[in-house]
Amino acid sequence: MKPQSLFVTGTDTNVGKTICTALLALHFMQQGADVGIMKPIASGCEIHNGELINDDARWLKKITGANDEMELINPARYMEPLAPLTAARRNNESTSDVLQKCQEAYAELARRHEIVIVEGVGGWMVPLAHHKSTFSDCADLVNTLQLPIVTVSRRVLGTINHSLLTWRATQEQQMLGWIFCDSAPVNAGDVAAETSPALIAEISGLPIIAQVPFLEDLSKGKLNDAVQKYF
Asked: 105-119 b/e with 16+ CB inside 10 Å = b?
């Protein structure tokens, strides 16, 4: 896959978007590209040294060696592990400027780096913001950043429905292909796991970019090995 800025979305939460974002970044870095990473909106944050920090964003920064400020990598952060709009409302925070804040941070990262890999939040339709009568989701964020997308999906039973619903919902965007990621161990001989990716690719007409098995060791060395093996 050629180096280019991408938005990494998923069929659901906990499908492996963060791991796949890191793998894509490392993949392009191995090709010699100057790569920035971004997780523009994150919920489920904790306070570290007086600052609200998302562990996934911090891990992405560490694993890729990014020197950019966390304010650029992850400009919108919420404490509770909920849909961003819900988390913001429960903390009485306005979301009217969230997309603009993300766009400004992305523009600065794009100025600093050859490409930027952007991780989405939750699934494609998760509500991110509300302004006047408009609810914004990942489609609005992608349109704001003007990026092609890669979709991360599971291989387990049920993934055909979730994947194709996501594909249909992204028809107005440029979807480049699928990454199937085992975010949890999958039993050997699982027929759904063995057959679903090919059928999803056939129906959607989009290629499988990679199939990533469950990775227990997420050290940088092991991730670089996984890039060599699966991408």
From this structure: bbebbbeebebbbbb
Burial of 199: CB neighbours in 10 Å, binned 0-12, 13-18, 19+: middle
Q: Averaged over 14-18, what is the pLDDT?
A: 96
Amino acid at residue number 152:
V
> Does residue 100 fall inside a structural domain?
yes
- Residues of the domain holding 71: 6-230
Which residues participate in catalysis according to the annotation?
Answer: 39
Count of CA atoms in the C-beta half-sphere (13 A) of 158: 5
Compute CA 52 distance to the chain's CA centroid, rounded to the nearest angstrom.
20
Mean pLDDT, the chain, integer: 96
Task: Specify whether the CB–CB gap between 36 and 115 falls below 8 A.
Answer: yes
Residue 136 lies in a domain: yes
User: According to the model, what pLDDT value does residue 1 have?
Assistant: 87
Question: Taking the model in full, what pTM does it have?
Answer: 0.96
129 near 41, Cβ under 8 Å?
no
Residues 231, 1 contacting (CB under 8 angstroms): yes
- Does residue 1 lie in a domain region? no
What's the longest Cα–Cα distance across the chain? 51
What CATH number is attached to the domain comprising 35? 3.40.50.300
Q: Which residues of 28-65 are buried (b: 16+ CB within 10 A; e: fewer)?
A: bbeeebebbbbbbbbbbbeeeeeeebbebbbebbebbe
Q: Which residue has the tokens 């085992």?
A: 182
- Please tell me the total count of domains within the chain: 1
